[in-house]
């Protein structure tokens, strides 16, 4: 994952500014919740913040990375820093008791003590209540960093005692770059990055055969819808229905179909737009020239309606036949 202050700033500009300002103004709080989806850089930024708070020679609100403290934080050997991971499904009361006892021992070095709770939403009621007492009355200079992907699952009493630091989703251009660095084509990276903001999930989607097939089938369908309803229905019977049997697969395929029409709208407005399907740019430009915003809007509405009908368990074949007729509206029947 990314590590330098510059890379972290590109990933989470708002969060980094918040933390660097806290340090600069010497306003370090006793507890923070870092809240954001998987892959948004919470662990890396927590490490950066810990180094900054303990660094012996910080410069311009950035840790030096070379002093004894920075090196010990990096290798996980600083005695004043404790990390807690869930034990099985939960963070248990004994883990919190051990943590508190470790944090209150006099044998720890002078200076600030910092502990990080990974997946803080996994605190059970008893461990959360034990932590609460320590959050309210920490012993000396203590800072807690709670990491979570599920802020709403953390007890409101704990939320109210922590400063909430909200992590934004990764900027799409950074995710695209990370995917391409892993050898994924620009076209596939562009599509995968529209469906998830998480690097690991996007990589596994890009390598997934079923996803590749879904992408191909959707693009074939958009091409044939332009020609005539009979050809489009043929693609539905021969490719779509046999390939997408599970409800989740149909949902994803409808999302991919919606992204295709969104691409066409974007290109109609600005031919230089970045797309979900950059490999279809020529085709999208041609469609955009021969259609109106109204028609495109109706087509997108029809796809959204099909997605709702899927949720109501409408017969899949009927659903797709209806959708093909709706997408054809405004095209001439041959």
From TrEMBL:
It catalyses: DNA(n) + a 2'-deoxyribonucleoside 5'-triphosphate = DNA(n+1) + diphosphate. The keyword Protein biosynthesis does not apply. GO terms for cellular component: DNA polymerase III complex. Its EC number is 2.7.7.7. Keywords: DNA replication, DNA-directed DNA polymerase, Nucleotidyltransferase, Transferase. It comes from the Bacteria. GO terms for molecular function: 3'-5' exonuclease activity; DNA binding; DNA-directed DNA polymerase activity. Residues 241-328 form the DNA polymerase III delta subunit C-terminal domain. GO terms for biological process: DNA-templated DNA replication. NCBIfam families: holB (TIGR00678), PRK08058.1 (NF005972). This is DNA polymerase III subunit delta'. It comes from Ureibacillus yapensis.
């Amino acid at each position: 994952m990314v590590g330098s202050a510059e890379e972290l700033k590109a990933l989470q500009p708002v969060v980094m500014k918040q933390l660097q300002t806290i340090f600069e103004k010497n306003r370090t709080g006793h507890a923070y919740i870092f809240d954001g989806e998987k892959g948004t850089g919470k662990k890396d930024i927590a490490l950066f913040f810990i180094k900054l708070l303990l660094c012996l020679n910080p410069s311009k609100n950035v840790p030096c990375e070379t002093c004894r403290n920075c090196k010990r934080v990096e290798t996980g050997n600083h005695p004043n820093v404790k990390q807690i991971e869930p034990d099985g499904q939960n963070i248990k009361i004994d883990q919190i008791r051990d943590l508190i006892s470790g944090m209150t021992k006099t044998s720890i070095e002078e200076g600030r003590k910092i502990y990080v709770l990974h997946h803080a939403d996994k605190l059970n009621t008893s461990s959360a209540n034990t932590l609460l007492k320590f959050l309210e009355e920490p012993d000396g200079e203590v800072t807690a960093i709670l990491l979570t992907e599920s802020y709403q699952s953390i007890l409101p009493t704990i939320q109210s005692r922590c400063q909430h630091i909200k992590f934004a989703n990764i900027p799409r251009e950074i995710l695209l770059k990370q995917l391409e660095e892993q050898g994924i084509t620009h076209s596939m990276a562009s599509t995968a990055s529209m469906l998830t903001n998480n690097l690991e999930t996007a990589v596994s989607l890009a390598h997934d055969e079923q996803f590749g097939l879904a992408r191909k089938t959707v693009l074939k369908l958009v091409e044939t819808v332009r020609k005539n309803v009979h050809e489009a229905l043929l693609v539905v019977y021969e490719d779509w229905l046999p390939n997408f049997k599970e409800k989740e697969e149909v949902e994803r395929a409808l999302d991919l179909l919606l992204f295709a029409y969104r691409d066409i709208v974007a290109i109609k407005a600005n031919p230089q737009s970045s797309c979900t399907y950059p490999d279809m740019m020529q085709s999208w430009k041609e469609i955009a020239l021969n259609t109106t915003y109204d028609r495109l809007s109706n087509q997108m509405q029809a796809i959204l309606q099909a997605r709702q009908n899927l949720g109501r368990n409408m017969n899949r074949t009927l659903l797709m036949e209806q959708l093909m007729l709706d997408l054809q509206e405004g095209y001439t029947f041959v």
